[in-house]
């Protein structure tokens, strides 16, 4: 079951500590350089601290947005799948395994036999992938081949899209009528 607690914000204290330490060290360098009349060195130190702080903020913002989006996708999986279900995922497997009670399989590491077993219909099954990523970067590798196998051998019906992630339900067997059409 998904916890209602917010994820820990551990990067923020780390960022504050690292930035404060860098500022202290820079201040010592500025004082030493200024005392020796090396204003160019002092200016360079101050500018580098400002640039590093802005870069850290940008990185932290990206990290937190990505973590929040991953959690929202895991919540979407929980909404559409009972606790006994299976999930076949790529790029988000560990998070889904952490936030849900489903049996989670990594699309990258499945062979055709295991893929057939994981999507056989014995348990409700979802597929969670960033389709754009799989279809461009991973098209000729295991994730792309496995996703095409699922689309060809099982019916995938889109349940929800969250950002770049698509959550699809697996129908265990294509019907004969569907195969004829």
What does this structure look like?
By secondary structure, the chain is of the alpha/beta class. 57% of the residues lie in helices and 16% in strands. The protein is built from seven helices and five strands, in the order ααβαβαβααββα. The protein has a five-stranded mixed β-sheet, sandwiched between helices. A hairpin with a 2-residue loop joins β4 and β5. The relative contact order is 0.11.
Question: Which SSEs are present, and which pair or pack?
Answer:
Elements: H1 11-35, H2 39-80, E1 86-89, H3 93-99, E2 103-106, H4 112-118, E3 125-130, H5 131-136, H6 142-153, E4 155-162, E5 165-171, H7 176-180
Parallel strand pairs: 1-2, 1-3
Antiparallel strand pairs: 3-5, 4-5
End-to-end distance: 40 Å
Order of helices and strands: HHEHEHEHHEEH
Low-confidence stretches: 1-7, 175-181
Gross morphology is elongated
| Proportion of helical residues | 55-70%
* Biggest sheet layout: 5 strands, mixed
Count of DSSP H/I helices: 7
Strand tally is 5
Radius of gyration: 24 Å
Strand residue percentage: 15-25%
Spatially, the strands of the biggest sheet line up as 2-1-3-5-4
Q: Determine the structural class based on helices, strands and strand pairing.
A: alpha/beta
> What number is the mean pLDDT?
79
């Amino acid at each position: 079951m998904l916890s209602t607690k917010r994820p820990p914000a551990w990067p923020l204290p780390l960022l504050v500590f690292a930035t404060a330490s860098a500022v202290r060290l820079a201040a010592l360098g500025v004082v030493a350089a200024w005392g020796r009349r090396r204003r160019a060195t002092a200016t360079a130190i101050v500018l580098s601290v400002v640039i590093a702080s802005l870069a850290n903020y940008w990185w932290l913002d990206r990290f937190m947005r990505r973590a929040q989006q991953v959690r929202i996708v895991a919540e979407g999986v929980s909404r559409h799948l009972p606790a006994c279900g299976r999930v076949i995922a790529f790029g988000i497997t560990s998070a889904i395994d952490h936030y849900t009670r489903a049996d989670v399989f990594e699309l990258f590491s499945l062979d055709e036999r295991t893929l057939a077993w994981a999507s056989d219909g014995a348990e409700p099954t979802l597929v969670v992938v960033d389709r754009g990523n799989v279809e461009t970067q991973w098209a000729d590798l295991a994730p792309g081949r496995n996703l095409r196998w699922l689309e060809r051998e099982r019916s995938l019906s889109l349940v929800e899209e969250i950002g770049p992630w698509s959550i699809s339900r697996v129908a265990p067997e294509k019907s004969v009528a569907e195969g004829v059409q």
